[in-house]
Amino acid sequence: GRDYGYLNQSNVRKLNTADGDVYYQIINENNSGIYRFSKETLKSTMIVKGMIDDFLIENGILYYVRNDNKAQLIAYDLTAMTEKILFTSSDQIRNLNKHQDWLYFVGKEDRVYQISTQGNDLKKISDTAAGSIYIFDQVMYYLPKTDRTIMHTIDLDTFVDTKFFPIPFTQAEVDRPKGDTEGTLSLLING
């Protein structure tokens, strides 16, 4: 159908599911934004228009990052169709994650930050510049930007940052050119 053809011609960057629907991000010249594909109607609807850098959905709330002139972390209620700006920064925001009532992201000087889902209590939780972050259970895993051969963890109760284990790759292997994906680090992390 029409939606399938549209997806094939677009640059779909990220997928997420909630309440049986698929949410996806498209990046192209004319129709950039976040869309919802309904399994009931088999149709796509644009939810948020514009260049979106990251997003996640939980409990009927779409959290997304827009890094235009200034970075914004926004909560969009999918039922009420209202949005609230949770945080604004002159520095880019990336790697959005959620655990319990907290959002986590990499922000100013590539440090990891925590903010409540209501937009209160912003706190820097890492003094090490982070590349990417991933949360599982009560632990955040991340690779430092300066030495991506050592995995770090942050306990989300105590905020203790610990060197977790050495990655069995050399820095040169980690830094290899894009497109060379044999034995990538993502396979190690994602199993």
Characterize the structure shown.
This protein has helices spanning 2-9, 171-174, 185-190; strands at 12-18, 21-26, 33-37, 44-49, 54-58, 61-67, 71-77, 82-89, 94-99, 102-106, 112-116, 123-124, 130-136, 139-144, 150-155, 161-166. With 191 residues, it is mainly beta. The longest helix is centred in the first third of the chain and has 8 residues, at 2-9. Helix content is 9%, strand content 49%. The strands form four sheets. It has a four-stranded antiparallel sheet, covered by helices on one side. It contains three helices and 16 strands.
Please give the share of residues in helix. under 10%
Computed structural class: mainly beta
Q: What's the total helix number?
A: 3
Strand order of the largest sheet: 1-2-3-4
Largest sheet features: 4 strands, antiparallel
What is the count of β-strands? 16
- Give the overall silhouette: globular
Mean pLDDT: 83
Give the N-to-C terminal Cα separation: 35 Å
Helix/strand order, N-terminal first: HEEEEEEEEEEEEEEEEHH
* Uncertain spans: 1-6, 180-191
Radius of gyration: 18 Å
Strand content: over 45%
